[in-house]
Amino acid sequence: MDKLIHDDKGTVTISNDGATIMKLLDIVHPAAKILADIAKSQDSEVGDGTTTVVLLAAEFLREAKPFIEDGVHSQNLIRSYRTACSLAIEKIKDLAVSIEGKSLEEKKSLLAKCASTTLSSKLIGGEKEFFAPMVVDAVISIGNEDRLNMIGIKKVPGGTMRDSFLVNGVAFKKTFSYAGFEQQPKKFLNPKILLLNVELELKSEKENAEIRLSDPAQYQSIVDAEWNIIYDKLDKCVSSGAKVVLSRLAIGDLATQYFADRDIFCAGRVAEEDLKRVAAATGGTVQTSVNNIIDEVLGTCEIFEERQVGNERFNIFNGCPSGQTATIVLRGGADQFIEEAERSLHDAIMIVRRALKNSTVVAGGGAIDMEISRYLRQHARTIAGKSQLFINSYAKALEVIPRQLCDNAGFDATDVLNKLRQKHALPSGEGAPYGVDIATGGIADSFANFVWEPAVVKINAINAATEAACLILSVDETIKNPKSESAQGDAAASAMGRGRGGGFRGRGRGMRR
């Protein structure tokens, strides 16, 4: 299910991404802040599984609550939880399947399966067959580049989700243009691209300079000087042989006209990140002066065109030599919808990158969680002492994932969980990959159905959730420092504090429930 968050400024966000929701919430309670932080860290580290982390941490705490109320010392619980956590992670590593050493085609289809698992819970889940291959192509095209900003996502309202497309290079909105722009050619094959950080405009003298003339004819030469300067700049741009000139600063009307006469395309005021992306894609470098432009600093691409997308014109550079960038142009009805689609794709992109780097995957759909839960229960029986109970409760907490999946899909959770427990308890171990089947409301072999997720996601989630739970368990007292009215009150308070043994209000064991 999605959440609609509406803040004081009146902005409405519809999201399914745990981290986005946690960021937007105004959380005051200190223990709850910890949960928001682990969601953020999961988002930046792995990109997906943000909801999983928060769910698990909350569930661990819920399982621990009755023990704490019965007077169990929290250190005992923490010790057991840590043990259980390391056992769980070892088990994940055992169960993980590597996708190394496969051919590119095989790898692509495997990664697309991972991407569609991530997308299935999102708003654009209905179109996951369409988006998953697109995400995989985008990630593979940036290769080993770590910088995520090499994948641009441009949002254009209008059309349907299916009108979205992937550009193997760079695309950006047509910038503000002057007269003469329409006479410029809009399509080139293998053009040279010149990237500038220079203004190509007439500049009048800024400083108040005083010039004394003895002859009125000399005045003309001063006016001409400005024109000569700009024509000189433009000549150098043209003689460099570039057919597409992009600049971060303005390209004025004179320059636009001049380029149009010479069949050159120009765009001024290109956003900085777009310019950087073009530089990376085409192999050009951004120049801060037009003097001495050599071939090495010019970029190139197979095809440049300007084309209409919705009611916007887009400049599109396709088939770039270094191929280290990709741009996804998203279409859709409402703005909020496109925003959410962008967040979902970000999750999918992160997952595919992770799966490419750490090429091990586990069965999704709650299968891995049930399997670890079973393993821990079995392990707990071999332990004498209280920690048997604690590890059991940890195992029980892990079942929250499949349970939540059932609830979200509208099935009877108890029923499905019982089937899963029975399947996972089979001595032969063939039930290990079984998880919730969202399509039919029963259980199914997640591995065979290609519901996969990178092992890193699960390992990170369990680690972070256990740490957060232990952190909150290890606190036994919350102390609040009452703020004083003013500096004078400060002094009085400290004097009073000395009088009555510290001006702190303490609270007993455990946080306020």
From TrEMBL:
Keywords, sorted A to Z: ATP-binding, Chaperone, Cytoplasm, Nucleotide-binding
Example of a GO cellular component annotation carried by this entry: chaperonin-containing T-complex
Organism domain of life: Eukaryota
GO molecular function: ATP binding; ATP hydrolysis activity; ATP-dependent protein folding chaperone; unfolded protein binding
Pfam families in the record: Cpn60_TCP1
Compartments it resides in: Cytoplasm
Ligase recorded as keyword: no
InterPro entries in alphabetical order: Chap_CCT_eta, Chaperone_TCP-1, Chaperonin_TCP-1_CS, Cpn60/GroEL/TCP-1, GroEL-like_apical_dom_sf, GROEL-like_equatorial_sf, TCP-1-like_intermed_sf, TCP-1_chaperonin
Family annotation (CDD domains): TCP1_eta (cd03340)
Main location: cytoplasm
Region (Disordered): 483-513
Family: Belongs to the TCP-1 chaperonin family.
UniProt function note: Molecular chaperone; assists the folding of proteins upon ATP hydrolysis. Known to play a role, in vitro, in the folding of actin and tubulin.
Quaternary structure and partners: Heterooligomeric complex that forms two stacked rings.
Official protein name in the record: T-complex protein 1 subunit eta
Record organism: Glycine soja (Wild soybean)
